[in-house]
Amino acid sequence: MKKYTYIIIIAIASIITSCGNDTKQSVADNSPVIKVNVNKVSESNNSPFLSVSGKIQSVNSAELSTRMMGFVDKVTVNVGDKVNKGQLLVSINNTDLQAKSAQANAGITEATAAFNNAQKDYNRFKNLFADNSASQKELDDMTARYEMAKARLESAKQMKNEVNAQYAYTNIMAPFSGMITAVAADEGDMANPGQPLVSMESPGNFEVIAMVPETEISQIKNGSQVDVIVKSINESIEGKVSEVSSSAKNTGGQYLVKVALNKTDAEILSGMFVSVQFPVERKASTEMVLIPKEAVVTNGQLSGVYTVSQNNTALLRWLRLGRTFGNQVEVLSGLSADETYIVSADGKLYNGVKISIQ
């Protein structure tokens, strides 16, 4: 009896296992096949341009601060406000300056009175000396007294000018017409010398700051026409190289290049990242493996590309990428010449998915 029971159990287990295998096989067989477009890796030893990353900034921008220490009385602007040249932006408490101004005014009044009196005495003794009624020493003494009074009056006026100049640092004015981009002060805050209070820029006139490696900087010429690709809005803008740095002392081996952008209707803003394409003549001694950027798959810090396996399935291969040349990127390792990679697909690709090459 036990023998027959054992045989029945084995038969049932075999049936269940067979059904499970059939189910898995059925799922595998019914998995969708994704249509893909492929390219074969090609090598190039000459590219018509060099592409480097950069950032847009306004040509006319300023961070406004004060040379005075004091509490902020009023902030008259907010981020995004349009302001005119000379408009008041921030005012700082100037009570102590008002006291100094009063002292300077009093000093001017006193010095003026002393000067007028010394001038009268000087003129009188000069006439007496002409009539031989005063000695040369008396005239010299009056002349010295007159000159000292004149100097004290000038000193008092310059002290007043100094106070007036300090008043300018308690009232932060717009140096040009533009837009407020940052406000770093609130009413009641303590303003310190050199501390940025308001940032502003003049919109509509932009330039690009790009860093060029030392191996390429000799190819960049002032006045060269370049193309600037604004990544966030997918726009291409023409520009001209306006400045080429001759030193990389403070930029880590990268040379700063400024590009003046042409007027455009594209909605660009300061801080947008761009790709600057410089026309250069390349004389590379080794061939480069280039693939289109649209074929590159990114996952965090990793970059790869889907290739075609021998079983006609997608296989993700990680790469080490180099420089960018327009819409192509250099492959330093991970992909060899004459290998096939997937450029585009009609569905979502993943490792092992069946593919059909169009």
Keywords:
358 residues; alpha+beta; conserved putative lor/sdh protein from methanococcus maripaludis s2 fold; Elongation Factor Tu (Ef-tu), domain 3; OB fold (Dihydrolipoamide Acetyltransferase, E2P); 4 domains; six-stranded antiparallel beta sheet; 3 helices
- For the secondary structure, the number of strands is 23
Tell me about the largest β-sheet: 6 strands, antiparallel
Structural class: alpha+beta
Alpha plus pi helix count? 3
How large is the radius of gyration?
Answer: 40 Å
Strand content of the residues, in percent? Answer: 35-45%
Helix percentage range: 25-40%
CATH architectural label of the largest domain: Beta Barrel
> What is the residue-mean pLDDT, rounded to a whole number?
82
Number of domains: 4
What are the SSEs and their pairings?
Elements lengths: L1 H28 L4 E7 L1 E3 L4 E10 L2 E4 L5 E6 L6 E2 L4 E5 L2 H36 L5 H33 L2 E3 L4 E6 L6 E2 L6 E4 L4 E8 L11 E6 L4 E10 L9 E8 L11 E7 L8 E5 L4 E3 L2 E7 L5 E12 L2 E6 L6 E6 L9 E3 L1
Parallel strand pairs: 1-23
Antiparallel strand pairs: 1-22, 2-17, 3-12, 3-16, 4-11, 5-7, 5-10, 6-9, 7-8, 9-11, 12-15, 13-14, 13-16, 14-15, 17-21, 18-19, 19-20, 20-21
